[in-house]
Amino acid sequence: MLTETMPWGLEFYIRLVWLFVIVITILLLILSCLFLAMRRSIERESKSRVFSHLVIEGMETERRRISRELHDNIIPQVYGLEVCDQIRSICMELMPPDFSRLSLKDSLANLCEEFSKRTDIECAYSIDQDLVFTSINTENQLHIYRIVQEAFMNIEKHSKAQKAALVARRNKRDSLDYIVICVSDDGVGMTSTTEGLGMKSIKQRAAIIGAKLDFISESSNGLMVALEIYTGNPNKETDVD
Q1: Average per-residue pLDDT for the chain
Q2: Owning domain of residue 47
């Protein structure tokens, strides 16, 4: 037998090598399984994001269509100034703003003012003077606008608040540039009724634009919807057209 003539030290070394090979093989199998699971997870997340994007794109198209129908076909047939004004207000909410004429910063301020007039909930806003959204494409600006709009609608429907606030500012961290947008209220906070379509839409839109989203709530102490959007490295040189 080989083991009878093999020195004890060499036999121990060969067994150690075989043990090492077996351990490495097991580790490689585990890593392969983890890699496959991670790849499937990324693929599912990617498909989910694409699906969410298509759903929201369809919603925006339908909003435009309904707004045009109301404005062109319903308002001319309606008598009464108050009803017409209400329908026009609905049309304005459904139609996306034209960011080529009115900046996102001004559009967000208008949202706050219109929300206060419509609901009689006091709404203050603080938007940095030097805040610009030029590094964010128009489609993502619309997602940000809709997120803030949905947050205000949730306050109106569920919060029982007396005051609301909108804050938008730049935030530099680790030489990177972010925009932070917060919508808050002094209402009842996060409840089971709060988690409706509005919140789902906010989460979907935040995922599409790759923004960090937080819901900060304490019972009977209001809710804050905090959105953080990465806008780039301010120290990085960019090409000039």
Answers
A1: 80
A2: 2-51
